[in-house]
């Protein structure tokens, strides 16, 4: 579960429901002004904005890039899946094990006595190929039909209570129209996803580009819990180091959180079954193989805009948007979690498919997702989260037909003892993690232009990170990566002023990343063992002076 209290601004907005997930126009994007937004004008301070859509080289597969669509057709603006002969025979440990594979079998009882082994996909097709579901219990029975091992373990009480509280017209729409449409989409899996999808394993930099239709098909299968070998996270299970992907946990217990999550998920499926998007999304696992010598870094701090208003996902097109991730990407999106990462995965549900193939992130790794579309408007945060309406994403596409939305998942450390974060080993870990996310060195596309990083209080909240320290860490990592920073403080105007004033002081003193690291290392030595009782930024101001030529 992602535990960061994030920079996803909660708003007290009225919850809107409709028979079919609403198509009301989204509310106007807020703009910060006055004291709520500190920093020079964007044109002056951040220079020329990134072109959108950016220039990208022709799409082509490589040893480090799996492309699941026909490349020649993309150049014509057409998206067609790659067709792989004998796809049902593929069953390898380095690839996603598909539910339609012939190796995926299920033992059935015939006439109460005889046990027969059958291809599981045939059972899935028989269970899901329906014109309508009579009730949520009917849906439960269908899912259990091909998950008999878990029939007595999985609970669906939350799903049933969600359906029971819906207006009759909306319930009938879900049972008679949307769920059958989702089932039809799920059963297209052998045609849509015959090309083997590699697992993005640790210590392997690799990218996967697939169509939004392929993602929708995979997510429909996740909703109906069809993926084999993905229902256990025990240490000895095959996928213990991967996030769960089947939706069974989401159906178990009723709460307002779970109900709002389901509304958001159903909004997505309603939109894609009505009008399937025709773009691509790229998922790339990046590894920082060479550590940075932070002590000797000559890099000057880049520009900063800091705001107490706004949301990361509403920042201008083309900027690198930070997901305050769990090492298991998506955190508790399919469970009880509902903070920054989970909200982002809900309103951009195509991100959820990353859980199918992304192994737990190591300390020197990140996941970059380019092209994920937004489908929902929301209000609130955590327990106050509410789905509001469907979102019309008009972000332009690049020549790979991807939305110009780039999201980077980086996981912060959880400091049970808050004083540990000042230790130099943990400071370097966070610097390297942020730099891995902000650098472009390992990307499938080497960007000519490096847009700003849109971020905020990464690793704070339940992870007990010091917001002032985490701001400096990200500012230093961005400087090393030669990116400007847009920083959101989630309504905290005092923190907004402190960060901006510190940044101005450091820039005015011509302090490099290396010099700032020296001061933080000194603070670390002072902080060990006892609480200093001295503000970090006060310490930096009093210790930044140094002999001439040292800066």
> C-alpha Rg, in Å?
24 Å
User: What is the strand tally?
Assistant: 14
* Poorly predicted spans: 1-33, 40-44, 547-551
Gross morphology:
globular
CATH superfamily descriptor? Leucine Aminopeptidase, subunit E, domain 1
Q: What oligomerization state is this entry in?
A: single chain
Major β-sheet annotation = 10 strands, mixed
Helix content, binned percent: 25-40%
Q: What order do the SSEs take from the amino end to the carboxyl end, as H and E?
A: EHEHEEHHHHHEHHEEEHHEEEEHEHEHHH
Please, could you describe this protein's structure?
By secondary structure, the chain is an alpha/beta fold. The protein has one domain (1-27, 89-551): 3-Layer(aba) Sandwich (Leucine Aminopeptidase, subunit E, domain 1). It has 16 helices and 14 strands. The strands form 3 sheets. It has a 10-stranded mixed sheet with strand order 1-7-14-13-8-12-9-6-5-2, sandwiched between helices. A two-stranded antiparallel ribbon has the order 3-4. The longest helix has 19 residues, at 168-186.
């Amino acid at each position: 579960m992602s535990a960061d209290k994030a920079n996803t601004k909660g708003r007290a907005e009225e919850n809107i429901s409709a028979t079919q997930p609403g198509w009301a126009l989204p509310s106007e994007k807020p703009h910060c002004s006055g004291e709520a937004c500190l920093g020079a004008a964007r044109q002056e301070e951040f220079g020329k904005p990134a072109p959108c859509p950016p220039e990208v080289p022709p799409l082509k597969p490589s040893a480090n890039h799996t492309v699941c669509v026909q490349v020649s057709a993309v150049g014509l603006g057409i998206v067609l899946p790659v067709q792989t002969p004998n796809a049902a025979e593929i069953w390898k440990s380095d690839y996603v094990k598909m539910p339609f594979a012939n190796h995926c079998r299920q033992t059935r009882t015939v006439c109460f006595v005889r046990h027969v082994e059958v291809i599981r996909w045939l059972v899935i097709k028989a269970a899901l190929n329906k014109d309508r579901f009579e009730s949520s219990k009917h849906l439960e029975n269908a899912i259990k039909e091909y998950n008999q091992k878990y029939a007595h373990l999985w609970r669906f009480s939350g799903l049933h209570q969600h359906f029971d509280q819906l207006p009759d017209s909306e319930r009938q729409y879900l049972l008679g129209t949307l769920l059958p449409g989702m089932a039809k989409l799920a059963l297209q899996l052998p045609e849509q996803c015959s090309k083997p999808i590699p697992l993005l394993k640790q210590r392997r930099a690799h990218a996967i580009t697939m169509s939004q239709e392929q993602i929708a098909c995979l997510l429909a299968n996740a909703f109906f819990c069809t993926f084999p070998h993905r229902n256990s996270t025990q240490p000895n299970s095959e996928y213990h180091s991967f996030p769960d992907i089947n939706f069974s946990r989401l159906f178990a217990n009723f709460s307002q959180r779970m109900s709002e999550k389901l509304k958001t998920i159903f909004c997505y499926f309603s939109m894609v079954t009505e009008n399937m998007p025709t773009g691509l999304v790229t998922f790339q696992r990046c590894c920082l193989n060479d550590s940075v010598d932070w002590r000797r870094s000559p890099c000057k701090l880049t520009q900063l805009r800091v705001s107490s208003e706004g949301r990361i996902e509403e920042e201008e097109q083309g900027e690198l948007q930070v997901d305050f991730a769990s090492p298991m990407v998506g955190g508790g999106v399919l469970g009880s979690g509902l903070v920054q990462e989970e909200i982002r995965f809900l309103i951009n549900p195509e991100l959820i498919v990353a859980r199918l193939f992304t192994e737990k992130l190591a300390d020197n790794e990140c996941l970059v997702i380019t092209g994920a579309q937004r489908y929902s408007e929301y209000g609130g945060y955590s327990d106050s989260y509410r789905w509001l309406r469907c979102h019309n994403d008009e972000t332009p596409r690049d020549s790979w037909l991807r939305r110009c939305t780039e999201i980077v998942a980086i996981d912060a450390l959880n400091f049970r003892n808050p004083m540990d974060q000042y230790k130099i080993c943990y400071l370097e870990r966070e610097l390297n993690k942020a730099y891995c996310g902000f650098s472009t060195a390992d990307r499938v596309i080497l960007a000519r232009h490096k847009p700003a990083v849109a971020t905020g209080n990464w690793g704070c909240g339940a992870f007990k990170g010091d917001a002032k320290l985490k701001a400096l860490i990200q500012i230093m990592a961005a400087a090393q990566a030669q990116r400007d920073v847009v920083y959101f403080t989630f309504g905290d105007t005092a923190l907004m002023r402190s960060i901006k004033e510190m940044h101005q002081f450091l820039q005015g003193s011509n302090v490099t990343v290396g010099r700032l690291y020296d001061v933080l290392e000194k603070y670390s030595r002072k902080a060990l063992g006892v609480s200093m009782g001295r503000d970090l930024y006060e310490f930096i101001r009093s210790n930044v002076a140094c002999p001439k030529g040292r800066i």
